[in-house]
Amino acid sequence: MKYMEQIVSLLTRGGFLYSVRGPQGGYRLARRPEEYTAGDILRVTEGSLAPLSCIVGPEHNCPRGDTCPTLEFWEGLHETITRYVDSVSLADLVAVERQKLIVKDQMT
């Protein structure tokens, strides 16, 4: 529960959720689920998705960038991760879980 409170706080501050007070209060999305990507959510809650700090941002701050033998590998991994998480929406994740529930209900 404590972890969820931290995540909700980050998402609220990031403009992803609205906080509603009162007896019928809670949280609601600020936009439609289709408008959020998994990447958006991860970046707000976890920060940069770069596997190494030296490739964060458009300008790499690695002092050995010109001679680093693995830089291209890490850049490629980062691009692949970014492309994937930005291709999955919150609505997609909900649809997958709903489908799992339907299949589970059909099996019982």
List the main descriptive attributes of the protein structure presented here.
mainly alpha, 108 residues, two-stranded antiparallel ribbon
**N-to-C order of helices and strands:** HEEHHH
- End-to-end CA span: 31 Å
Give the CA-based shape: extended
Structural class of the secondary elements? mainly alpha
Number of helices: 4
Average residue pLDDT: 91
Provide the spatial order of strands within the biggest beta sheet: 1-2
- Give a count of the beta strands, DSSP E runs of length 2 or more: 2
Helix content: 40-55%
**Strand content of the residues, in percent?**
5-15%
Radius of gyration: 19 Å
Q: Largest sheet at a glance?
A: 2 strands, antiparallel
Flag low-confidence runs.
none
Description:
This protein has helices at 2-13, 38-46, 71-85, 90-107, and strands at 17-20, 26-29. The two termini are 31 Å apart. The chain is built from 4 helices and 2 strands, in the order αββααα. With 108 residues, it is mainly alpha-helical. A hairpin with a 5-residue loop joins strand 1 (17-20) and strand 2 (26-29). It is 50% helix and 7% strand. The chain has a two-stranded antiparallel sheet with strand order 1-2.
Question: What does this entry show, briefly?
Answer:
It contains 4 helices and 2 strands, in the order H-E-E-H-H-H. It has about 110 residues and is mainly α.
